[in-house]
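Hello again, I could really use a second opinion on something today. I owe you a coffee for this, so here goes:
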Amino acid sequence: MLLQHYIENVALFFDMVDTRDHFGVHIVQMAKQNSTLMNAILALSARQLSRTTDFDPYIADAYYQRCFDTLIPALNDNVTIKEEPLLAATVILRLLEEMNISIIGSDPQGHLFGTQAIIRAAEQSYAATSGPDRRQAIYWAAFRQELWISLMTQRAFKLHIFPADRSLEPANDSIWATRTIAHLGDVSNFVFGEGRNSIARYNQLMDENRSWTQCRPDSFDPYYFRQDRDGSGRNFPDIRFHQKTHVMGTQYNLLAHMLLIVHDPTIPQLGPAHKASRAVVDRTVQDNVRTLCGVAQSNSKWFPCKFVACFAIALVGDRFTLREDQEQLRDLWYACERSHGFPPTATIAQLEESWGWHNS
């Protein structure tokens, strides 16, 4: 049951832009020959079930410990550390840990250190960028995990960014979607790094963001779009896409745009001009968040898009001042956690504090 649940309900956490579904297909086949990887899969599946149903949480703990018993010795083996099952198991355990903790305000590196060590050891094997083969799929999963930690802790990347395809050359939709992940990584490094005040770099990243939107294939256009019914602009729009790559590519690119808008180094820092500029930024950011939430609600089949919306809420939700807006954001977050066991509730509780909901 646990393996079936992983295949049907959990693997998409990792295969969100992978049209070949490596974690749902190839990694499972690999796990049949590797107990460390199989125990990691079963531990994650059990943890997700325990967070969304009344499934016994101690079962996840048992599989987690079994995996750990063989994973830790392998990290010290110069040969084994370069093997795909070890990195895949580390990435899977990393998600399990993310389900158990609140990310905001902490630095929950956990198995990320192991992931970094493995990727450094096998860097040459992962350097090819021709497509999402098995090694590429594992690497991108690790990359996205570090990206979320970077965003939530507001720190620059620690994981090596290999020479990913950032071009605008013709390619399949999976590669176009993957380019937005690399772009979001670049944006995260900029806004949280030492060069955050470089206007030239900011303009370059903003140009790249616009260029992706202008040059991406028409297949990324939604097949259905409807604004909110009352025209207030506060309700989430209905935006439906054909494939998961279209959903996730759009979400990542829009999240990168939101971060760039918030961290514009040309905005005055003091005086009346600062207040006026901040108001313009807040309106744009709110529109971006509503779009992210609308895409998440309209394409629930590809549930990782909900996580992108939740991370946007965590980052800039404090810029929503109307109670009606705040309640919509809160409801989307809670619905996501109830259905998928992620992200943790503690984060939205902190946001409620910033909204002043708990003031007496």
Observations:
- The chain has two domains: 1-133, 163-359.
- The chain has a mean pLDDT of 86.
- The CA atoms of residues 292 and 358 lie 27 Å apart.
